[in-house]
Amino acid sequence: MGSNDSEGARRPVIGLPTYSERARYIHWDTDSAVLPRTYVDMVERAGGIPVLLPPTGIARPELVRRLDGLLLTGGADITPARYGAEADPTTKVRPDRDEFEFSLFELAHEAGIPVLAVCRGLQLVNVALGGTLVQHLPDRLGHTDHSRGPGVFGVTTVATAPDSRVAAIIGPEVKAHCHHHQAIDTLAPGLTASAHAADGTIEAVEADTGPFLVGVQWHPEEDATDYRLMRALVEQAALYEQERNR
Asked: How confident is the model at residue 97 (pLDDT cuts 50, 70, 90)?
């Protein structure tokens, strides 16, 4: 999939689920499908074609057939009932996003489409594959280093696991832009923790086998100078597109 660039190469199409929020623009104050521009720019710089995917109910197979890669974006908390828990007072959910994105990931995963999951996206992948979440990290850790306040990214040093796919992409450590009050509790079967914060919080995971599936708890789109993770997804998406069209 994807249109031709100036050299005739096909650029892979990367799907990005959007937020569904009230937004103000020009003269309007209305319910909207929105996404921070930083995600779009990261995909474009890495050589992909970004396509925004608003939550529209259950994802359809024909949508997934038009994608070469999937970037599961950040946002609100996962509905705790999906991992057998009661909601904590701090948990803020968006059931419409859950409905769309869980079904979207299931279809993409079954089709072997490369996936990069960011923050909420990592948590969604973990829950979809059978894991659970900590609903409020400060209650467990006694600090708020992973989320400094509404709309403020903190910078956390994250160490990657040697010989992991994540380490091969970004090296032994990264200064990660973090904004999350939840994290992985029980790791899903088939996933390996491939990066941790100093307090032990899982900050990245990857699939043990199969197609490219990497999730990070931080926000790589917030570092405009570093799009190695996104480039890795685009490269894998290009290979997927070539194999599919043979």
From this structure: very high
For the chain, give every domain's residue range: 13-244
Report the SS3 class of residue 41.
helix
- The tokens for 11 are 């650029």
CATH no. of 13-244: 3.40.50.880
Which pLDDT belongs to residue 1?
43
- In degrees, rounded to 5, the angle at the alpha carbon of residue 137 between the alpha carbons of residues 40 and 184 is 65
Contact 3, 10 (CB under 8 A): yes
Contact 116, 71 (CB under 8 A): yes
Q: Which one-letter DSSP state was computed for residue 11?
A: P
The first and second tokens of residue 6, run together, are: 């100036």
Query: How far out from the chain centre does Cα 34 lie?
Result: 16
Give the pairing type, strands 49-53 and 154-160.
unpaired
Would you say how long the chain is, in residues?
246
Paired tokens of 58: 């259950």
> Given CA atoms 220, 110, 108, 11 in this order, what sign does their dihedral have?
positive
The rounded distance, in Å, linking the Cα atoms of 158 and 229 is 14
Per-residue pLDDT reduced to its tens digit, 143-159:
667 776 777 888 889 99
Q: What is the DSSP letter of 210?
A: S
Q: Which residues are catalytic?
A: 119, 219, 221
Output Rg (C-alpha) for the chain, integer angstroms.
Answer: 17
Distance CA 96, CA 162 (A): 38
Model confidence pLDDT, tens digit, residues 68-86:
999 999 999 999 999 999 9
Cα distances (angstroms) measured from residue 240 to each of 14, 27, 28, 151, 178: 12, 42, 40, 36, 30
**Is residue 129's pLDDT more than 80?**
yes
Tokens of 70: 């999937």
